[in-house]
Design goal:
Blueprint (H helix, E strand, L loop, with lengths): L1 E6 L6 H12 L4 E7 L4 E6 L6 H9 L8
Antiparallel strand pairs: 1-3, 2-3
Amino acid sequence: MEELTFEIPDLHCEGCANRSAEILEKLEGVEQATVSIDNKSAKVFYNSDQTSFDTFKEALAKADYTAEK
């Protein structure tokens, strides 16, 4: 299990944070995703054999959010 923290600078409200976490947790290989509106970041626990940051970035982009390492 890997852990990755990255920025989501587009977050403006708690609803955005909740939606981002839901998007990430639906991805195959993601065990848990926590998104913080306070520091505009996500912490994801995932299986690196099944998914990667690029997958997180693409999934969030579909909802008009930007993911940055």
